[in-house]
Amino acid sequence: MKFTSVIGLAVAVFAGIAIGAVGETIHAQSKPPVYMVANIEITNQQGYANEYLPKAKALIQQHGGVYIAAGKGTTIDGELAGRVVILRWDSMEQLMGWRHSPEYEAVRKVGEKYAKYNLFAVDGVEQK
Fold first, then answer.
1. In a domain, 11, yes or no
2. CATH number at residue 58
3. Which of 20, 49, 81, 83 fits a disulfide with 40 by CB distance 3.0 to 4.6 angstroms?
4. pLDDT in tens for each of the 128 residues of the chain?
């Protein structure tokens, strides 16, 4: 085997190892998303739909939130008061950044005239 072939083979082997290591590092660093579950008791549907919801949806999207589900939930056990919304976020920091942003705080004050909110966050589970 020629010397240049040996060097080429060695470079290829080391490149493969490096690519595999980077791939494993990226996989190991990825975290499951965070989910926010909201149970919203709407007291004025028209005000909620017209004055709150369009602005809230826009801010959720601007802050990286993704709608997973929204609508009337089905009670299986316990009590459910109104609309259920499930949002996905990349991290708890991202979710809290949206929730406590000055823009959303202002919109939320409008929404509180038309609804009562119960919000919960839960970490996603790593899928294997």
1. yes
2. 3.30.70.100
3. 83
4. 554 444 544 444 444 554 554 444 444 458 899 999 999 999 999 999 999 999 999 999 999 999 999 999 999 999 888 999 999 999 999 999 999 999 999 999 999 999 999 999 999 998 88
